[in-house]
C-alpha cells in the first residue's frame, strides 16, 4: 500500500507540492487572523495621511477601534494610504468623521464608504449642494451605513479614550462660511491630547478659546496652514508640542509662511504631509514620530 | 493573448479534443485543393488584404495588387507543369482559376473599407461652442477625478463624440445628456487614430452638462454592465485598491482602476496581456457555464446556453478585440464539436478576423490590441510546435510544466516583437521570465476571482475569505510585475518595413525548416 501511495505521489508530484503550499499559506493566514484578533493595537496611533491637498487622518485607539477623520480629495489616494497602514484583510473602519462637506475633505470618503464596512458615519448637520456630496449620501444609503449628527458637547468614549466635540455651535453651524461649521474634536488617549480642527478660521478659533482647558500635545493645523487660520491667540492657548499640516500641491499658497512663523514662535515642531504621511505614537513620556 | 484558448485546451482537454487539435496544427502548410474550406480561407484572406491595402491609404493600391496577383495566377496556370514537384504546393491546375476568381474579393475589401470610412467622415458635428444632446453609447470609464463617456449625438447632428467630464454626477450607459461645449478634433495623431477606430469623431473637454433621462440603451447591455459593476465593487470591498484593480483586470479586463505607475510596470515587464481579456477568460467562462448547465439540462440546451453565456461575457466586458477573437474561435470550436465537423484553426482565425473587420474595418490597421491578439495567436499556433520540435521538449515537462509556459510565452513574444517595438516602448528579454513566473498562478487567481464574484451575491463574509487567498496570489504577481518592471532592459532598435518583412520571413522559414526536418526524421 505504501508503494501505491509513493507511486501516486511520484505521478502527481507537482499537484502535491501545490496542494501542500496552498495549505501552508492558508494556515499561515488563519494563524495571522487569529493572532490579529487577540493582540489588537497595544497603543494609540495617529496617522496624518499624505493624500495631496486635503485632509485625512486615521486614529487607531488602544482598543484597536479605528476612526478616520476626513478622506482627502476625489482621486481616492486615501485608499492607497489606508492600505499601507491597515492589514490587507482588515476591511472594517469603526468610525468615519466628516469635518465639513468640502470636497478636499469628503471626496475620498465616497470610495472609503463603498469599499470598507463602516460602523458609523459622523458629521455635523451642515450639508452641501455639490454633485459629489449627493454621491456620498447615495453611497452611505446603499451600504446601509448609520449616520450620526454631531455638535458641540457630544463625546465618544472607547476604553480609556475620550473624543469630545468642541465645535460647531449652532451659530457656527449656520455661518455663511462653510469652514466655520467644521467639526472640531479633542481626543484624549493614553495621557496624550490631540486636536483635530478641519478648516476652521479666526471666527471658530475665537469661539474655541474658552473650551481649551489644557495644553494640546498634537495639533492638526487648521485649513492646510492658511494664513487666515492658526491665529496667535489660538496657538498660545493650544500651545502644541507637535503641529502637523495636512497639505499638498495647491494654488492657495498653503501653508503660509506667516502661519509657519506663528507655529515656530510657540515652539511647535512642524511636520507636513506633502513630505510623506506622518504617524505619531506615544512612547513612555514622549512621542514617537514616523515619516 | 498568451493564455490562448487553443493552447489551454491542452491543459484542460475540454472534451477530449486535444487529438483533433494537434492534427489541425500539424496539417501541411500550403496544400491547396480548393475544397469549400480553402475557398473560404482564401476568400477571407483576399478580402482582408483589400481592407489592409485601403487602410494603409495607398490610392488605387488595391487595384494594382489585384492586377498583379491575377497576372501571377495566369502565369502559374500557364507554366504549371514547370514547378518542380518537390515543392509541397502542387495544386490542381483549376485551383489557380478558382484563386483568380476569388481575387475579386480583394478590391471588394478595399471598397468596403473606403465606403465605411466615407460614412464615418460624413458625421455632422456641432461647430464652435454649441448645445447638443445625445445618448451615452458605452460604459463610461471612471478615473479618480474625471469620467469619459462616448456620446452618440442626437439630431440634427450625427456621429459620436468623446465627453471628458468631472467625476460627478456619475453618468451611465443609456443616459440622455444635454451638453454645452466645443467639439475639438482629437490630438495627438496616435490618439486620434485610436479614437477613429473607436468611431469617435471629436472630443469635448469638461463641458457643462446635465442628465436628462436614462435607460435609452439596450436593456441587455445595461444589465450586463450592471453585473460587471457589481463584480468590480465586490473586488473593491474584499481587497486593497491595488490588488482589487489587478484582479478586475485579470478577470474582466477592467483597466481604468489600474494606477499609471502599475500600467507602466506591466508594459515594461511585458505582462500587459494579463490584464487584457483573452481565450483563457473565455475558456473558464465556457467551462464553468457548460459544467453548470449540463447538470440541469439536456446537452443540446446546455450547449446553446453556454454559447449565450460566452456572448454575454463578451458584451459585458465591452468587446475588447482579444476577447471577441477568442469568443468567435471558441464558439466555432463548440459548434464544430456539436455538429461533428472538423475544426481547422486556420479557418477559425480567418473567420474571427473577417467577422471583426466586417463589424469595424478600422480594427485591422488601427487597433493594436487586434494585431497583438492575432499575431500572438499565430505565434502560439505555428511557432510553438516548431520550437518544441526543434528543442525536443516533451509536452507538460518541468515543475508546473514551466517549460510549456516558457515556450508559449516565447513563441507569442517572438511573434509580436516588431509590434512591441513600433507601438510600445520596446521588448524586454526578461519579460519571458516574468511571464513564466506569473502565468503559472494566473489561472488559479482568475478562478478565485470568479468564485468571489459569485459568492458576492451570497454575502459579504464568504467573499472576505476568498479575499485572503486572492490577496496572497495577487501580492506575489504584483510583486513580480513591479520587480521586472523596475529592472527592464528595453530592447528597441529602429525598425523599418523591410526589417519587419525579413523578420517574419525568417520566422516562417524556421517553421518550414523544422517541419521538413521532423518529417524527414520520421520517414527515416
UniProtKB/TrEMBL annotation, chain A:
It holds the Pfam family Lactamase_B. It comes from the Bacteria. InterPro entries: ComA-like_MBL, Competence_DNA_uptake, Metallo-B-lactamas, RibonucZ/Hydroxyglut_hydro. SUPFAM superfamilies: Metallo-hydrolase/oxidoreductase. Residues 50-239 form the Metallo-beta-lactamase domain. This is Metallo-beta-lactamase domain-containing protein. The lineage of its organism: Bacteria, Candidatus Joergenseniibacteriota.
Amino acid at each position: 500500500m505504501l508503494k501505491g501511495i509513493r507511486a501516486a505521489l511520484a505521478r502527481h508530484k507537482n499537484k502535491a507540492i501545490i496542494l501542500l503550499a496552498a495549505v501552508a499559506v492558508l494556515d499561515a493566514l488563519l494563524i495571522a487572523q487569529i493572532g490579529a484578533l487577540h493582540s489588537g493595537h497595544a497603543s494609540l496611533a495617529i496617522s496624518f495621511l499624505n493624500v495631496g491637498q486635503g485632509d485625512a487622518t486615521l486614529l487607531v485607539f488602544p482598543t484597536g477601534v479605528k476612526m478616520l477623520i476626513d478622506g482627502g480629495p476625489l482621486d481616492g489616494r486615501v485608499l492607497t494610504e489606508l492600505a499601507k497602514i491597515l492589514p490587507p484583510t482588515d476591511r472594517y473602519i469603526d468610525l468615519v468623521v466628516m469635518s465639513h462637506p468640502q470636497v478636499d475633505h469628503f471626496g475620498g470618503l465616497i470610495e472609503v464608504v463603498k469599499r470598507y464596512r463602516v460602523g458609523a458615519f459622523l458629521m455635523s448637520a451642515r450639508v452641501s449642494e455639490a454633485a459629489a456630496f449627493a454621491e456620498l449620501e447615495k453611497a452611505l444609503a446603499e451600504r446601509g451605513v448609520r449616520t450620526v449628527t454631531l455638535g458641540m458637547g457630544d463625546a465618544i468614549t472607547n476604553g480609556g479614550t475620550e473624543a469630545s466635540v468642541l465645535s460647531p455651535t449652532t451659530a457656527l453651524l449656520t455661518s455663511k462660511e462653510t469652514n466655520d461649521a467644521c467639526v472640531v474634536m479633542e481626543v484624549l488617549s493614553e495621557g496624550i491630547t490631540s486636536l483635530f480642527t478641519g478648516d476652521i478660521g479666526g471666527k471658530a478659533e475665537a469661539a474655541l478659546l474658552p473650551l481649551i482647558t489644557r495644553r494640546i500635545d498634537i495639533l492638526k493645523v487648521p485649513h492646510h496652514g492658511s494664513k487666515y487660520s492658526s491665529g496667535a491667540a489660538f496657538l498660545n492657548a493650544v500651545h502644541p508640542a507637535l503641529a502637523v499640516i495636512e497639505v499638498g500641491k495647491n494654488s492657495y499658497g498653503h501653508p503660509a509662511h506667516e502661519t509657519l512663523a506663528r507655529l515656530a514662535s510657540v515652539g511647535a515642531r512642524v511636520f507636513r504631509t506633502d513630505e510623506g504621511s506622518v504617524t505619531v505614537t506615544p512612547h513612555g513620556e514622549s512621542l514617537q514620530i514616523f515619516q | 493573448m498568451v493564455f490562448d484558448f487553443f493552447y489551454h485546451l491542452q491543459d484542460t482537454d475540454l472534451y477530449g479534443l486535444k487529438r483533433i487539435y494537434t492534427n489541425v496544427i500539424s496539417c501541411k502548410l500550403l496544400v491547396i485543393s480548393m475544397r469549400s474550406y480553402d475557398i473560404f480561407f482564401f476568400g477571407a484572406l483576399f478580402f482582408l488584404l483589400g481592407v489592409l491595402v485601403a487602410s494603409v491609404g495607398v490610392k488605387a493600391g488595391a487595384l494594382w495588387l489585384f492586377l498583379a496577383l491575377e497576372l501571377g495566377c495566369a502565369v502559374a496556370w500557364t507554366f504549371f507543369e514547370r514547378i518542380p514537384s518537390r515543392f509541397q504546393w502542387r495544386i490542381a491546375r483549376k485551383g489557380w482559376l478558382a484563386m483568380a476568381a476569388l481575387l475579386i474579393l480583394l478590391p471588394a475589401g478595399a471598397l468596403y473599407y473606403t465606403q465605411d470610412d466615407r460614412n464615418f467622415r460624413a458625421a455632422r458635428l456641432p461647430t464652435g461652442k454649441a448645445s447638443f444632446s445625445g445618448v451615452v453609447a458605452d460604459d463610461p470609464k471612471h478615473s479618480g477625478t474625471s469620467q469619459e463617456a462616448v456620446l452618440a449625438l442626437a439630431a440634427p447632428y450625427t456621429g459620436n463624440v468623446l465627453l471628458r467630464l468631472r467625476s460627478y454626477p456619475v453618468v451611465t450607459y443609456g443616459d440622455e445628456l444635454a451638453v454645452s461645449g466645443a467639439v475639438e478634433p482629437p490630438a495627438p495623431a496616435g490618439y486620434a487614430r485610436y479614437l477613429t477606430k473607436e468611431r469617435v469623431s471629436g472630443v469635448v473637454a469638461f463641458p457643462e452638462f446635465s442628465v436628462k433621462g436614462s435607460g435609452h440603451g439596450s436593456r441587455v447591455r445595461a444589465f450586463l454592465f450592471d453585473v460587471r459593476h457589481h463584480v468590480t465593487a465586490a473586488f473593491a470591498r474584499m481587497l486593497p485598491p491595488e490588488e482589487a484593480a489587478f484582479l478586475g483586470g485579470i478577470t474582466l479586463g477592467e483597466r481604468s482602476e489600474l494606477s499609471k505607475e502599475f500600467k507602466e510596470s506591466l508594459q515594461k515587464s511585458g505582462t500587459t496581456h494579463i490584464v487584457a481579456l483573452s481565450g483563457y477568460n473565455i475558456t473558464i467562462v465556457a467551462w464553468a457555464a457548460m459544467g453548470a448547465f449540463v447538470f440541469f439540462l439536456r446537452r443540446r440546451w446546455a450547449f446553446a446556453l453556454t454559447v449565450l453565456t460566452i456572448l454575454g461575457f463578451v458584451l459585458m466586458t465591452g468587446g475588447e478585440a482579444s476577447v471577441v477573437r477568442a469568443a468567435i474561435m471558441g464558439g466555432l470550436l463548440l459548434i464544430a464539436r456539436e455538429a461533428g465537423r472538423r475544426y481547422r484553426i486556420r479557418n477559425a482565425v480567418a473567420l474571427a478576423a473577417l467577422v471583426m473587420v466586417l463589424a469595424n474595418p478600422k480594427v485591422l490597421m488601427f487597433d493594436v490590441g487586434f494585431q497583438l491578439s492575432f499575431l500572438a495567436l499565430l505565434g502560439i499556433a505555428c511557432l510553438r510546435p516548431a520550437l518544441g520540435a526543434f528543442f525536443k521538449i516533451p509536452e507538460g515537462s518541468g515543475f508546473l510544466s514551466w517549460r510549456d509556459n516558457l515556450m508559449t510565452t516565447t513563441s507569442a513574444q517572438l511573434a509580436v516583437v516588431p509590434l512591441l517595438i513600433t507601438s510600445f516602448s520596446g521588448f524586454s528579454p526578461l519579460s519571458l521570465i516574468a511571464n513564466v513566473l506569473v502565468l503559472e498562478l494566473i489561472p488559479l487567481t482568475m478562478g478565485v476571482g470568479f468564485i468571489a464574484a459569485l459568492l458576492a451575491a451570497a454575502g459579504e463574509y464568504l467573499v472576505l475569505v476568498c479575499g485572503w487567498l486572492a490577496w496572497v496570489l495577487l501580492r506575489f504577481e504584483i510583486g513580480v510585475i513591479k520587480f521586472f518592471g523596475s529592472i527592464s532592459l528595453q530592447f528597441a532598435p529602429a525598425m523599418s518595413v523591410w526589417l519587419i518583412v525579413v523578420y517574419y520571413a525568417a520566422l516562417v522559414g524556421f517553421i518550414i525548416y523544422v517541419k521538413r526536418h521532423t518529417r524527414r526524421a520520421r520517414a527515416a
